[in-house]
Design a protein that fits this description.
Layout: E1 8-10, E2 16-18, E3 22-23, H1 31-43, E4 47-49, H2 57-66, E5 75-80, H3 82-86, H4 90-101, E6 108-111, H5 119-132, E7 138-141, H6 145-153, E8 161-165, H7 173-181, E9 185-189, H8 201-210, H9 214-224, E10 228-229, H10 236-243, H11 252-259
Parallel strand pairs: 3-4, 4-5, 5-6, 6-7, 7-8, 8-9, 9-10
Antiparallel strand pairs: 1-2
Amino acid sequence: MTNCIESVATLNNGLQMPWLGLGTFTRDSGQAIQDMIADALSAGFRSIDTASIYKNEVSVGNALKNSEVARKDIFLTTKVWNEDQRKRRTLQAFEESLKRLGTDYVDLYLIHWPVADCYLQTWQVMEEIYRSGRAKAIGVSNFLIPHLEDILQNSDTVPCVNQIEFHPYLTQTELIKYCQNNKIQVAAWSPLMQGLIASEATLLRLAKKYKKTPAQIVLRWDLQHQVVTIPKSVTTNRIIENTQIFDFELSDQDMSIIDALNQDKHLGPDPANFDF
């Protein structure tokens, strides 16, 4: 399934999405992010994840434009922000994202957060965008089971992806099982726990056992759970390091050991209770 960096997940509409992608949240919007993406593409990454709220779509677009890698070979994801949902301007927001990115389509367009009394209407607009061909796939981010049930009960289109906070302290087992049962591909944001993995004794021990870093252990754990993973890093060495997760496999016992680290601990906002 995941034996090389070119390995892909097949979404429920047949589109192929790389198992490993580059996250760009909170990164500088100028040359730094362009250099980061250039390094990632050189290292073999073919999936770039951004969002309108990150304020870096122009830089992401410039990096893709300046790359020797063809646009058709890059899986590009962006997201509609909450205020655009509230103002019922999802379509305009999408068109603005395309303009900033300098592309006429994205591979994946996501609802960033399940804004109450908005996300169902937003999803209807997302379906229109999908039918237009300007988004090859549509999905959601930070959606819990009740939110997904709303979508499935009120729409003929099953989200292709649900991008959620997923790491050893927050395994969200029931949510992942629900997504898998409904053919919704799970993707992990903050897989490296904002750096906390470096001080987790269990991960350090497993890193020593497999002669890998704690980051590589966790990213491999993601893949073996069939979760797309999108770590972020600005340093070339770390970017390259994050690609070196396809040449080993965690045992079932060690997978269970990492699973047992779960604390149901959000490091980011809780999708059941957010106010932005």
